[in-house]
Amino acid sequence: xxxxxxxxxxxxxxxxxxxxxxxxxxxxxxxxxxxxxxxxxxxxxxxxxxxxxxxxxxxxxxxxxxxxxxxxxxxxxxxxxxxxxxxxxxxxxxxxxxxxxxxxxxxxxxxxxxxxxxxxxxxxxxxxxxxxxxxxxxxxxxxxxxxxxxxxxxxxxxxxxxxxxxxxxxxxxxxxxxxxxxxxxxxxxxxxxxxxxxxxxxxxxxxxxxxxxxxxxxxxxxxxxxxxxxxxxxxxxxxxxxxxxxxxxxxxxx
Length: 254
Ligand code: 0WD
Known about the structure:
The chain is α/β, with parallel strands linked by helices. The protein is about 40% helix and about 15% strand.
């Protein structure tokens, strides 16, 4: 039972038990979904396997989104396992840490290209594979941040990548809508994760959100998870191309 009973979904981007992807996976499982996980490299495999076990989830293999063959491989494995898929959760982003501090204007061409490839194009690359396994419709979900809409200190090239990611949510929604495949994003408030620890002055950003957001606090991966469960469930079946803020309301004041 639950709003996701009978639904099967792939979760990409679990690094550890602080990952937003993990909060989403837990909520999706609580609401009845059957899950599969990918991991990036052997180091994360050791972390992802026990977490997957906790949720009776499958582990469908290594996926580094800079290598399209590994994306094909995990979707082939999903096809072999389930035949079709109902939702995909994309929680993947990257920038060289050295460029998440100081000025955006210093961004190198190499890091710009790599950041956009991993943080933005990968969602489209995944949509291409998912579409083939979503004959009954489906739901694709990605994670973004307010730095896409407004300048934020140190977010730099990630802000530019997230702006492109948000635009791609709209283009993908238009392309895939006729097949009843919905495409949405959650714009999450700052949460202390491995990826966030690479952003300069992150603790200050957390404090700033605590003092200034309407709810006077930051959000948790559980809260992002619950909203994600809704967005990949039929309860949100009339929504696509949407960027939903789960940020304690910060976007209305920031
Ligand atoms: O405050 C935050 N933490 C927010 C995060 C606020 C708003 C949005 N987000 C976004 C992030 O930008 C990202 O898109 O949420 C998503 C998930 O991030 P997270 O949960 O904050 O971070 P983390 O637990 O580190 O997971 C991101 C993972 C990687 O972990 P590490 O830290 O090892 O880079 O993205 C994956 C990887 O598992 N990843 C890749 N996966 C496949 N191929 C690749 C890649 N090339 N690069 C990174």
